[in-house]
Amino acid sequence: MVNKTFKVAEIELAYKPNYKTADKPKIKDSNGACQILIDHWDQNKIGLLEEFKILLMNRGNRVLGVVHISSGGMGGTVADPKLIFAAALKSCANGIILSHNHPSGETQPSQEDITITRKLKHGGKLLDIQILDHIIIGHEEFYSFSD
Fold first, then answer.
1. pLDDT-based confidence at 9, cuts 50/70/90?
2. Which of 44, 54, 61, 135 is the most exposed place for a label (fewest CB within 10 A)?
3. How many separate helices (H) and strands (E) can be counted in the chain?
4. Residue 113: which H helix or E strand, with range?
5. Per residue in 45-66, pLDDT tens?
6. Domain residue ranges of the chain, discontinuous segments joined by +
7. Distance CA 28, CA 26 (A)
8. Separation between Cα atoms, residue 14 and residue 90, nearest integer Å
9. pLDDT of 19
10. Does residue 15 have a pLDDT over 90?
């Protein structure tokens, strides 16, 4: 019998933020969250293609970061739960605000939007990461699932 040795990648967990928490913006409502998201959106693309982004939040509702999850076409994009929760876990986030735009400008959620929100809320419960909101951005308005 041949003895085979397998190399296994070593995984190290570390968290070294390079900022002061007090310097990060604090989210008080959906308007504040929407403004931060829009500031991180390429305005030349917001009416052209659908993108999915998340705000990573600490327990005090301070923004830890904005993460671009995906870009799609005019009719949709993929919100991969593994990427979303990997970003949240890596940043030690306690909460997530989901967001995507509708290039059509219509902000009412589709059935797919409702389904992915429920799916991510369920996954968040398993990981003890709260989905705080899902914001759909249009041309002149936004829709907040929490509102």
1. confident
2. 44
3. 3, 5
4. helix 111-127
5. 888 999 999 999 999 999 999 9
6. 25-144
7. 6
8. 9
9. 74
10. no
Residues with Cβ within 8 Å of 48's Cβ and at least 6 positions away in sequence, in order, are 74, 103
Q: Residue 136's beta-bridge partner residues?
A: 100, 143
Sign of CA dihedral 9, 54, 101, 44: negative
Which amino acid appears at position 60 of this protein?
Answer: G
Strand partners for 67: 54
Render pLDDT for 85-113 as a digit per residue (tens, 0 to 9): 999 999 999 999 999 999 999 999 999 99
User: What are φ and ψ of residue 36, in 5° steps?
Assistant: -65, -45
Distance (Å, whole) CA 101 – CA 139: 9
**How far, in Å, CA of 99 to CA of 90, rounded?**
19
Query: How many other C-beta atoms are found inside a 10 Å radius of the C-beta of residue 80?
Result: 13
State which CATH number among 3.30.420.40, 3.40.50.10170, 3.40.140.10, 3.30.420.310 fits the domain covering 25-144: 3.40.140.10
